[in-house]
Amino acid sequence: MSAKPFSSVWTRERKGPRDQGLSRDQIVRAAMELLNEEGLDALSMRKLGARLGAGATSLYWHVANKDELLELVMDEVYDEVVIPEGTSWHDAATAFAYGMHTAVSAHPWCVTLIGVLPGLGPKALTAADRLMAAFSDAGFDGPDVDYAVAAVVSYTLGATIPEVAYLNALARAGTDVTGAQAVMEPIIHEVAADYPHLIDRYRTYAGTSIDPLTARRLAFDFGLVALLDGLAARLPREARLDHPVRD
After folding, report:
1. Both 61 and 84 in a single domain?
2. CA separation, residue 130 to residues 88, 92, 104, 172 (Å)
3. Other CB atoms closer than 10 Å to residue 183's CB: what's the count?
4. What sign for the dihedral angle of Cα 77, 82, 86, 88?
5. Is residue 138 part of a domain?
6. Rounded distance, CA 63 to CA 55, Å?
7. d(Cα 224, Cα 72) in Å, to the nearest integer?
8. Which residues, at least 6 apart from 71, have a Cβ–Cβ distance to it below 8 Å?
9. Are 49 and 92 in contact (CB under 8 A)?
10. Which pLDDT tens digit goes with each residue over 195-218?
11. Are both 41 and 131 inside the same structural domain?
12. Residues 118-157 pLDDT 10s
């Protein structure tokens, strides 16, 4: 059985503008609005066309199918990850991590698309290129550049996607983190009765006045700082002297 040939909106020759009708930018903006309002399951070419007051045929002039549309929309998510050109590796990694965390949190529908749709759009590639260039300029060499970038990307998405998925599930259930904790507290005490250390840790956090979402942000900060400290230690000594990490 032959493999299905790879196709992408970014590898297909783009048609010229029509004399009249919708532009691709209009279609992408409307798709983003629909996704933000109603989620991924609500998106269809027919529904998007109705939203724009146009038939599906007008949309297919610009995109061959829904997957191509999602590629375009996902590149707009990466547009919100701003990494200044020529910045230090530490600042570039920090900008990527917080930018990606914020973008995914603002567009929770994208959690099931990351890692599934290839990031081949110009905005995704710009973010990747600037992050890689910053590590290379700092003194990371050879495959260490790729490993360092992968570590930052993996930490960011690994910490962000489960959090956003959890908040999505709570929203669908009509509750929030505080409400879920109130429901779970007696259950945790019951099922973890034989694990006193876990119960003690749970009581410690339950007894604080820190907002649960703030606690999650602090945990993200801690993990990112620890990762960056570890990456700094991987630099050659002379590079660490030339590129000190700022507190």
Report:
1. no
2. 10, 8, 20, 37
3. 10
4. negative
5. yes
6. 13
7. 29
8. 8, 9, 10, 117, 118, 120, 121
9. no
10. 999 999 888 877 677 788 888 899
11. no
12. 899 999 999 999 999 999 999 999 999 999 999 999 999 9
Q: Is 58 in the same domain as 160? A: no
Longest Cα separation, the chain = 72
Report DSSP letters for 101-127, one per residue.
Answer: HHHHHH-GGGGGTBTTB---SHHHHHH
- In-domain check, residue 5: no
Per the structure, the complete domain to which residue 66 belongs is given by 24-76
Q: Is the pLDDT of residue 97 over 90?
A: yes
Burial status of residue 214 (CB atoms within 10 A of its CB: 0-12, 13-18, 19 or more): exposed
| Owner of token pair 């759009």 | 121
In contact, 97 and 152? CB cutoff 8 Å: yes
Paired strand residues for 114: 117
Residue 201 lies in a domain: no
Q: Given the structure tokens 């602090």, which residue do they identify?
A: 218
